[in-house]
Amino acid sequence: MEEKEFKPAPVITIDGPGGAGKGTISQLLAKELGFHFLDSGALYRLLALSVDNHGIDLDDEKALGVLAEHMDVQFKATDADSPAEIVLEGEVVTQAIRQEHVGLLASRVAATPVVRSALLARQRSFRESPGLVADGRDMGTVVFVDATLKVFLTASVEERAQRRFSQLKEAGNNVSLARLEEAIRARDEQDTNRAIAPLKPAEDALILDSTNMGINEVFQRVLGATKQRLSEQR
Length: 234
Ligand code: DC
Known about the structure:
Helix 1 crosses helix 9 (about 215-234) and helix 2 (about 40-55) crosses helix 4 (about 100-110). This protein has one domain (about 10-220): P-loop containing nucleotide triphosphate hydrolases (Rossmann fold, 3-Layer(aba) Sandwich). The protein has 9 helices and 8 strands. It has helices at about 20-35, 40-55, 60-70, 100-110, 115-125, 140-145, 155-170, 175-195, 215-234, and strands at about 10-15, 35-40, 75, 85-90, 90, 130-135, 150-155, 205-210. It is of the alpha/beta class.
């Protein structure tokens, strides 16, 4: 009998700094392809919230590792058009984890090696048939090095701050553009300069600067590249 070769499900990774549009593009792509979606940043944000809730000291690496390993999280799909509802230790935190200060704390927690290794298996378990779109900082460089396509999506700090400002304003939040820009710079600095799994494009990444591109243009470029790679792999 002919033996069938085991092929892991294909993965498309979309890495880049905060606010570059990775989340939107990844979700559109996952929907278009019928693939699963991993928002790895949400895992670091959830851990940050949990650290805050339990009053854990950021220097207590052992406690951070234990929490990362055992964190009780559920991603509950609602309908096909809305992002999953996120539940942490029984509480719905879908909105709470998006706050600016949680992102900054997530970025600090994410620089701890025990945390990153504790979250590796959890992230890889999202890789299921028919495929996965994974959004983060090190999806193509560390977590899914054999990805079918690796995209690095970026945009200028000013443009990312402006986009975030418009989103928050539309949602009725009063924020200062200058403070947002400052927070984005601080997070970029932390994510890029950490010793472990720093934010950088994979050597074989398709680099897209979306500063002067609309969402649709970026999506079409990523979709085109994805379809080409998937057909080459068949
Ligand atoms: O993508 P995000 O803004 O939700 O991510 C929040 C923080 O989590 C980010 O500043 C750094 C960290 N992170 C990481 O270190 N590695 C990832 N793969 C995803 C996020």
